[in-house]
Automatic annotation (TrEMBL):
Its cofactor is FAD. Pfam families: Pyr_redox_2, Reductase_C. Keywords: FAD, Flavoprotein, Oxidoreductase. Gene3D superfamilies: 3.30.390.30, FAD/NAD(P)-binding domain. Residues 336-406 form the Reductase C-terminal domain. This is FAD-dependent oxidoreductase. It comes from the Bacteria. GO terms for cellular component: cytoplasm. The keyword RNA-binding does not apply. Residues 7-313 form the FAD/NAD(P)-binding domain. Residues 402-452 are annotated as: Disordered. GO terms for molecular function: oxidoreductase activity, acting on NAD(P)H. It comes from Saccharopolyspora hirsuta.
Amino acid sequence: MTSGPGRIVIVGASLAGLRAAEHLRAGGFGGALTLVGDEPHGPYDRPPLSKQVLLGMVRPEGTALPRTREIDAEWRLGVAAAGLDRERRRVQLADGSEVEYDRLLIATGVRSRPWPNESEAALDGVCVLRTRDDAAHLGRLLARRPNRVLIIGAGFTGSEIASACRERGCAVTVAERGEAPLVGALGGMVGEVAARLQREHGVDLRCGVMVTSLEGDSAGRLRRAHLSDGSALDAEVAVVALGAVRNTGWLEGSGLAAGPRGVACDAGCRAFDVHGIVTDDVFAAGDVARTPHPLFGYQFLSLEHWGNAVAQAEIAAHNMISADARRRPHLWTPSFWSAQFGVNIKSVGAPSMGEEIVVTQGSLADHRFAAAYGYRGRVIAAVGFDHGKWMGGYRRLIEQAAPFPPDLPGGNGQRPGPARFPDPALPSHGPTVTLTGHSPNEKRVVFTPSRA
């Protein structure tokens, strides 16, 4: 290992950035370590923001991530990265200062997609939910006891917010351009179950419509939303939940292969430049990174998953301080969970890649089931509603490229049907697993996930 002196800079002081720093120190790195973060807060956990924090079970400041070890780092918080000079190996910060590096880890994650009309987005009552400050702001809005909360977008975040607002006793309307909630992430059949779940819990769910404009009163407070079907809706709070934007703008002009889809990397988390040449001093991890995976035809995966951020940060840190022969690939199988309307939802694999789906356990009518997704005759993903304990078995089927439909003991004998994913180009919520392009290499590999 090259664990001696040197300077490593991590841009992004959240989950991936913190875990990478801890693994660097655990791996023996003894040089200078700097973490840069655009928020004034230290690393904190984001999943509770749309669940426990909105329900008042945890205060926003109570979401700080636990530390596994001391990292002896310089923290540059509350200042965003503004540019990257790769020739001089310097990260340029928004306050005009620069930070030198020998190796750089990009872990800048994503931000919420804003409401496109800036004047409407500035209305009192219009918000997004991504950061700790966003959660505190939305909590204050809900404390006013609004007559109605409008949620624009019914992906995982929008659906979790709707669940929390209903649990708080708020009247909730959800507007979704797609045919059902979660349709971009899990497809139409599962989306129908999610739709019934929302309506059974009192949500005014409106699918196949868009919010076209937001209207304020003379004091600048939100009062009404206008929809594409010609209707209007009175609401005092509107939460924009239209997906995420990867934080790569500061890399413009750097020569890296970075854009709206994220930072393109090899399987070892090393970033590519715009010519397709892999760098050896710039790495990426977490939501902002996209890497090829042999399970999914070497297509590049962008994952907005908590577990992926942790696993990828460990691989990136290991490879940053390791000789070539000791480097490892990032082969984590995607896994995601959500809690909403009293149901625990968990998925493994890449559902949005699925062409077909079959219910393998349980019942759609009872909102308790497991289903497998098929792609070209093999199991590519699975989802469970209150069937999370079975997802480990489906993960093994995915990793073994098991035939689809799977032949499971005690299966219910249902036949596969279309997975019904919408056009990904539609401006709505999207999948939590995004596949973007592929390698022209057609080599076959034996998938051996790292157990380290």
